[in-house]
Design brief:
Radius of gyration of chain A: 24 Å
CATH class of the largest domain in chain A: Mainly Alpha
CATH topology of the largest domain in chain A: MetI-like fold
Shape of chain A: globular
Number of strands of chain B: 0
Number of domains of chain B: 2
Structural class of chain A: mainly alpha
Oligomer: heterodimer
Radius of gyration of chain B: 31 Å
Distance between the termini of chain A: 36 Å
Number of helices of chain B: 20
Largest sheet of chain A: none
CATH topology of the largest domain in chain B: MetI-like fold
Largest sheet of chain B: none
CATH superfamily of the largest domain in chain A: MetI-like
Number of strands of chain A: 0
Number of domains of chain A: 2
Distance between the termini of chain B: 43 Å
Order of helices and strands of chain B: HHHHHHHHHHHHHHHHHHHH
Largest interface: A-B, 101 and 105 residues
Strand content of chain B: under 5%
CATH class of the largest domain in chain B: Mainly Alpha
Order of helices and strands of chain A: HHHHHHHHHHHHH
Helix content of chain B: over 70%
Chain lengths: 280, 437
């Protein structure tokens, strides 16, 4: 199609103006985080209203690595996220395979229960989870927190993977069974490879969630060397102290990998979100 | 003649298996079916239950009383009501699982008998492979039972006790069942609490509706403008618009909180320097303005998700529909209203419901931006601020006030609000519609 230059011009200008203004609004707080991270002051009050107006310094990053447990927080969060992600993929895919391919007693009630449970926020049972972890010695441990995340995710994730597996022809795994493969081999060699797209999505989603969670780490983790990033960063900007620049520096380091990853995978994101709407 | 004798034999044999399987778990497998491994496993389950039966009975008894007050004992040795409650619920779950295993064992004995008698003594497949469905489900179901269902039942139960500060916090004191007392207090027995509950519940629903609607239409607007603009730099704008989605919400909300701070926030200082305002605007300090800002900032954080979603479902629309519409002489706006919008709406409708439930529970968007504040009239007593929704109030009641009983009543209320949505969610799933469920 040929662009109709004269007629489209005014329309293009309006659209361009709209997009530019929206972009500025979107960028507004983000620019301040970046500038605060490199600004010499300490609190938000001393921050120049013009971004980067006070010159730049790396002293907040220095402070994070030398005087705080930032690296330990980072390591803890990473361990929790990685463990949650790996176990989630394993458990969800295994139960989804059973739900999708087998007939057994109580299958229907169990699936109904999974569907209804997924809607309740898991921290409604906060007090009970605390007492449970206390009884099994899981308080103030990273694995205790991983257990909580795993359990909370399982109903929804099982349903998601099961819906995906339902779209894969059964003949594929039935052929393997006829050839004498055990169910576990079939799961390992046939189901896992074909379900790879949804499992990667699941792995990423369950890896990113713990980085932002606050309630459960606050509930489960007590000692200073067991804190996660969300707890640590929050401690910079409580009512008692306002170290906004340190907070900004720490946040920048967490957010950067996320942003790079999202920008790199935006095509995949749009596709997988498009898939979820069509297939649901 | 011979056939009828054989069916008669089969009937009596079947009865024998049924009776022995009912008498003791696994007995049917051991006596009549020669499935020793399976039989031993089932028998072991029942033996375990019988060994622990006295403990189970005490546990259930404790669940009924939640322990007697023992002020004469040192604190460490007093009965801990919360442990009794959770142990009792776990025991109930264990008994429930046991009953299910029992049913499965009887059914499996009968099925095995039918199979052997009809197809002769066919060698059954190796046991481990046959047990795959059970082994495969065990980790998931175990986790869900103990870390999701038990806690949910626990919270629901606490709503019927007086587990609260200052008088009833274990291990110093015991907790008692109080029936519907907490519900009566919160639903009108105490004017301040009832008022706060009404206010918070109403705001929760309004908030969820506003937050969902603004993000949905905001995201759709952006997607359509990006898609229809045909600008060469559209991908650049899309990259900018994805940023709020990529930044962890804890971070972005805390940043906004600081930017909007009434006294030293950057926004007020900027506006003052520009000469636009003379006195600072209490963005998050006035209950109504704070409510408005919470929705607005949530739009900032939430529109990218729906923008991506709309972009995704728009690319899935077949191009020939557009061409047909254009040939028929439709202009761009008509194409959007009659083609794009209905299709996108149809495809994303289920996600609107999901987003609504997500916003009912959207702890982060409220807690990190306003902390539930600002204070209103009843805040000192109830701790519920001007922008608190049910979940943030639950958090405050639990962590700050130690009013676990009231927090649990709120949790039950969330159940009540969300249960119809769960049912709608169920009805729209493909497997439900196709009659599989």
């Amino acid at each position: 199609m040929q662009p109709k230059t004269t007629k489209v011009n005014i329309y293009t200008i309006i659209v361009l103006l709209f997009l530019t203004v929206s972009s500025l609004l979107v960028l507004y707080p983000l620019v301040y985080v970046v500038s605060a991270a490199f600004s010499p002051g300490n609190s938000i009050a001393s921050l120049n209203i013009i971004p980067f107006g006070d010159g730049t310094t790396f002293k907040h990053f220095d402070h994070l690595f030398k005087n705080t447990n930032y690296l330990i927080w980072f390591r803890n969060t990473f361990v929790i996220a990685a463990a949650t992600s790996i176990c989630t993929v394993f458990i969800a895919s295994l139960s989804a395979y059973v739900f999708s391919r087998f007939r057994f007693t109580l299958k229907k009630p169990m699936m109904m229960a999974m569907l209804i449970l997924q809607i309740f926020p898991s921290f409604v049972g906060m007090v009970a989870i605390y007492v449970l972890l206390l009884r099994i010695g899981g308080l103030d441990t990273l694995w205790g927190l991983v257990l909580v995340y795993l359990a909370g995710n399982t109903p929804y994730n099982t349903w998601m993977v099961k819906s995906y597996l339902d779209t894969i022809p059964r003949s594929l795994d039935e052929a393997a069974i006829i050839d004498g493969a055990s169910h576990f081999t079939t799961y390992l060699r046939i189901i896992l490879p074909v379900a790879k797209p949804i499992l990667i999505f699941l792995a990423i989603a369950s890896f990113t969630a713990p980085w932002m969670d606050f309630i459960f780490p606050k509930l489960v983790l007590r000692s200073a060397h067991k804190q996660t990033l969300a707890l640590g960063l929050f401690s910079f900007v409580t009512d008692k102290k306002n170290e906004f620049t340190n907070f900004a520096a720490g946040s920048l380091l967490v957010a950067l990998p996320f942003i790079l990853f999202f920008l790199a995978s935006q095509k995949l994101l749009i596709e997988s979100l498009g898939f979820s709407t069509v297939k649901e | 003649m011979e056939a009828s004798i054989r069916t008669g034999e089969k009937e009596t044999g079947r009865k024998k298996v049924l009776i022995s399987a009912l008498l003791f778990m696994g007995l049917g497998h051991l006596l009549h079916l020669k499935q020793y491994l399976k039989g031993l496993f089932y028998a072991a389950c029942e033996v375990l239950l019988l060994v622990f039966l006295p403990k189970i009975i005490t546990g259930i008894g404790n669940l009924r009383t939640l322990g007697e007050a023992q002020p004469h004992l040192p604190i460490r040795e007093r009965a801990n009501s919360m442990f009794m409650l959770i142990d009792g619920i776990i025991l109930l779950a264990v008994i429930f699982i046991f009953i299910i295993i029992y049913i499965i064992s009887v059914r499996s004995a009968l099925a095995a008998y039918d199979q052997t008698s009809s197809a002769g003594a066919k060698k059954t497949k190796q046991g481990l492979n046959k047990a795959f469905p059970i082994l495969g489900l065990a980790p998931g179901v175990g986790l869900v039972v103990f870390f999701v269902i038990v806690p949910l039942i626990f919270s629901a139960s606490v709503a019927f006790t007086n587990y609260s500060s200052p008088g009833h916090i274990p291990p110093n004191n015991t907790v008692d069942w109080v029936g519907f007392d907490n519900f009566v207090t919160l639903f009108g027995g105490d004017a301040t609490w009832a008022g706060a509950l009404g206010r918070v519940a109403l705001w929760t629903v309004v908030w969820a509706a506003l937050a969902t609607a603004t993000c949905y239409f905001g995201g759709m607007l952006m997607a359509v403008v990006l898609k229809e603009s045909n600008l060469r730099i559209a991908p650049l704008f899309r990259m900018v618009f994805i940023l709020p989605y990529a930044v962890p919400s804890v971070i972005s909300m805390l940043v906004w909180q600081n930017l909007l701070n009434g006294t030293f926030g950057t926004l007020n200082r900027t506006l003052r320097t520009l000469g636009l305002i003379s006195s600072p605007i209490p963005w998050l300090g006035d209950p109504w303005l704070a409510k408005f800002m919470v929705v607005l900032i949530n739009l900032w954080a939430g529109f990218p998700y729906f923008m991506l979603l709309t972009l995704g479902s728009m690319t899935a629309i077949a191009q020939d529909i557009y061409e047909a519409a254009l040939i028929d002489g439709a202009n761009k706006f008509q194409v959007f209203r009659k083609v794009t919008f209905p299709i996108v709406l149809y495809q994303t409708a289920p996600l609107i419901i999901m987003s609504f439930t997500h916003n009912i529970n959207n702890f982060g968007a409220i807690f990190f931006l306003t902390g539930g504040g600002p204070m209103v009239k009843d805040s000192t007593l109830t701790s519920a601020g001007g922008t608190d929704i049910l979940v943030t109030w639950i958090y405050k009641l639990t962590v700050n006030l130690l009013k676990y009983n009231y927090a649990s009543v709120l949790a039950v209320m969330i159940f009540v609000v969300l249960a119809p949505l769960a049912i709608i969610n169920l009805r729209r799933t493909r497997s439900f519609r196709e009659g599989e469920l």
